[in-house]
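[stage:ingest] chain + small molecule (zinc ion)
[stage:ingest] validated
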Amino acid sequence: MSETTTLRSLLIDELRDVYHAERQLVKALPKLAKAATSEELREAVESHLAETEEQVSRLEKAFELLNEPAKAKVCAGMQGIVEEAADLIREEEEGAALDAALIASAQRAEHYEIAAYGTLKAWAEALGESDVAELLSATLDEEKAADEKLSALAEAGINEAATAGEEEDDDEEAEDAASSSKGKQTEGGTGAAARGAAGGRSTSSGSGAGRSAQGGQSRGGRSGSSK
Ligand code: FE
Ligand code: ZN
Ligand code: FE
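[stage:predict] done
[stage:export] tokens:
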């Protein structure tokens, strides 16, 4: 097997993974939107849902360009992120704190996607598949914009609103509360770290470890669909 064959099969494999991830999000985002209290947050999630549906189509187009059936392979990473968000929605009452936690969950999903698409785009470019790379690049830009939008919403007041209910506590108690459940955001998630998420461009580090997640389960190969 030549180097080229190997990278190509990696590309196909990871496209199947992210195809599954996006389709999970198409199902999960409406639940997240419904659980949001902030109108702005709900609108941001709904508009990203529309983008996500388009991203699914872009992946189908990429499979087509590569002459491969559009098959999904279970993305355990996104499954975990989606499950944690579902737990939050189940366990927390609607309100500012849940909104802050929903943003944290959504940003985990965005960062995961940014890492995936950054790698996929680099692989497609390395393989000379420039049309595929362009599709992936368009999606990567949307994921980054979605992430920044979420940071902006958090910074514009959702985090502050989430702490408002805790004002009667004295400082030490508030610190304790922060380390327990009520969805208080750590500085990393929404602020600096989120902004710095440049997109996993690395070719080597991204690929190895996750590979063991056995998959091969193909769901709904809507192969020939084009737009
Ligand atoms: Fe996406
Ligand atoms: Zn995955
Ligand atoms: Fe996304």
